[in-house]
């Protein structure tokens, strides 16, 4: 059973990563060429997979199951970094248009990151390690 949970977590990680990269590239293209909009099913899939993986990871942490720590901060940094660059290009040069979906994903990424950081700190305070 534990092995199956680990495998499910790994599958969620890779799906979130693949969909995340795909949606990010689509949003960059959309910001340069507004007529090419991000495929809404990919957006919905990523917006679902990313927090689902984070929930699964936190569930495993609190059940004291072994799990491979991943650098979730990378998700947040990449999304916010691209959002910042596109926002500057939009504001200063007006050559791109930041997709509305990017604002939603950035907010979701920040919210999930803050929630997992709070959970991690509470866990460390209660059990003395992550």
Describe the structure.
- The protein has 130 residues and is mainly alpha-helical.
- The relative contact order is 0.14.
- It has one domain (2-127).
- Helix 1 runs parallel beside helix 3 (72-93), helix 2 packs parallel to helix 4 (100-127) and helix 3 packs antiparallel against helix 4 (100-127).
- The protein has helices at 2-32, 40-62, 72-93, 100-127.
- 80% of the residues lie in helices and 0% in strands.
- The protein has 4 helices and no strands.
Q: What is the average per-residue confidence, as pLDDT, rounded to a whole number?
A: 86
- β-strand percent reads under 5%
Structural class: mainly alpha
Helix-residue proportion: over 70%
Distance between the termini: 22 Å
Q: How do the SSEs run, as a string of H and E?
A: HHHH
What's the number of structural domains?
1
The total of beta strands comes to 0
For the sheet with most strands, the description reads: none
By DSSP (H or I, 4+ residues per run), the number of helices equals 4
Radius of gyration: 17 Å
Q: What overall form do the CA principal axes indicate?
A: elongated
* Poorly predicted sequence stretches spanning 5 or more consecutive residues: none
């Amino acid at each position: 059973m534990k092995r199956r949970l680990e495998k499910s977590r790994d599958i969620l990680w890779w799906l979130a990563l693949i969909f995340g990269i795909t949606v990010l590239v689509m949003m960059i293209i959309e910001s340069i060429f507004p007529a090419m909009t991000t495929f809404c099913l990919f957006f919905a899939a990523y917006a679902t997979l990313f927090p689902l993986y984070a929930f699964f990871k936190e569930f495993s942490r609190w059940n004291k199951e072994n799990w491979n720590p991943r650098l979730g901060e990378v998700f947040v940094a990449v999304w916010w970094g691209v959002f910042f660059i596109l926002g500057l290009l939009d504001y200063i040069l007006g050559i791109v248009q930041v997709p509305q979906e990017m604002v939603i994903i950035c907010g979701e990424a920040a919210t999930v990151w803050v929630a997992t950081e709070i959970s991690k700190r509470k866990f460390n305070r209660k059990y003395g390690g992550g």
